[in-house]
Amino acid sequence: MKSATIIFPHQLFADLSAIKNHSIYLVETDLFFNQYPFHKQKIAFHRATMKAYEAFIEPHVASIHYIEAHTPLADIYELIKHLANNNIDRLNIYPTHDDWLNQQIRQGCQSRGLDINTIPSHLFLNKTEDLAAFFKGHENLFHHHFYQQQRRRHKLLMQGNKPCGGQWSFDGENRKKYPKNKQPPKLKKANWTSYHEQAAHYTEEYFGDHYGFPMAQDNDLIYPITHQQAQTWLADFVQHRLAEFGPYEDAICFDQRVLNHSLLTPMLNIGLLTPKEVISAVLSQAKEHHIPINSLEGFIRQIIGWREYIHGLYHFKGRKQRCSNAWNHQRPMPKGFYNGETGIDPVDQTIHKVLSSGYCHHIERLMVLGNFMFLCEIHPKAVYRWFMELFIDAYDWVMVPNVYGMSQFADGGLMSTKPYISGSNYIRKMSDYASGDWCEVWDGLYWRIIDKHLDYFKNNRRTAMMASNWLRQDTHKKKSHLAVAEDFLAGL
């Protein structure tokens, strides 16, 4: 039986035991390069990491065929047809963790008579089948139940059967505003390499009209593109930012992008780092140095809890989520969300962060961008596409649950009990954005949503206070809020 192994942009694992001496096809497949006008830095990141990976695996495999995005074989159906015409009868692949890509591979192989051999992946801690008991066996799919199971299963931060520190989560301690005169840790940029340079030129040549600032040596963020660079990046986080990750993980600063966040997801989501490596590094640091339990638990929760939870939701509920629109939001994505000209200071500043780097942290995504898009009643499909286009760490498995479930509550409550919306007060409380005209608009949109869906907010015990606060306002104030909101929406 003659076989070939396809490796996609998100499968760049350092462990080569499963592909040693294979005939490799390293593919800039359409779904990762051509499906949308992806951010220039995401395209360049994939190009640089893949070309570096090509050199990394070359001594260990039988042959490498590198397929560029602008060539016919970047289409999976065409590639499988090509392989079949060259007497390949078995395809070796890692699990794709991508519904569209998986369908393409299976349909292509079925039509050409190729067998599929799935080889072990390192992208997640849990195999998909290991998650079935939770996601198929529970009507309530809330994260905190899943997270407790994960802690027990992987025996992390446990003292016997009880959680270290006496509680499962210290999230209540992790909501501090960043102190006014505190200097955030300096992020050490990855070294600029010939792979970065070549990828930047390649992106401008073939994707020059895409969104975002290009990859450049003088950018304030240069992402790691090899396993060694990723390990250095991880070490920098655990040594300099982990200890205060917890208290400031929800903090927002208008002129800061990273603060104490790890910014590991670009590398984690393509295999340059694995969750096992990240957990090991964090626990080693905690063993040798004092890491407060709220920071240690808070970060571990992101890796073994939220990331694995999103993976499971996507696999078992993703198709249902991506077809949902419980609030019947229909507005297309306004142009202002692509150029940072909505007129709302926190939204525009956050968009500029994303345009310059392909990144902003999770609270900015949820409580600035997602929150405001919900208040503007933008269609969840448009929100999904926007995040897919502009974020360097965005993949289908990431964005379907996070957008349709968490950010836009389009699934009606599969993963949470209420939509994550707020007025301007929350943004000002958690950030250093100054008050301004944007507050009046934001609050108008917020109260408009409460008014429009008053029965829902009144009858949900977690949102009843929102409805009560609206009903207590006098008629003149209500009319003023609604008028401001309608004026803004009319101009979007």
Automatic annotation (TrEMBL):
Residues 304-398 form the Cryptochrome/DNA photolyase FAD-binding domain. InterPro entries: Crypto/Photolyase_FAD-like_sf, Cryptochr/Photolyase_FAD-bd, PhrB-like, Rossmann-like_a/b/a_fold, UV-DNA_repair_photolyase. Gene3D superfamilies: 1.25.40.80, Deoxyribodipyrimidine photolyase-related, DNA Cyclobutane Dipyrimidine Photolyase, subunit A, domain 3, HUPs. It comes from the Bacteria. PANTHER family: SLR1343 PROTEIN (PTHR38657:SF1). This is Cryptochrome/photolyase family protein.
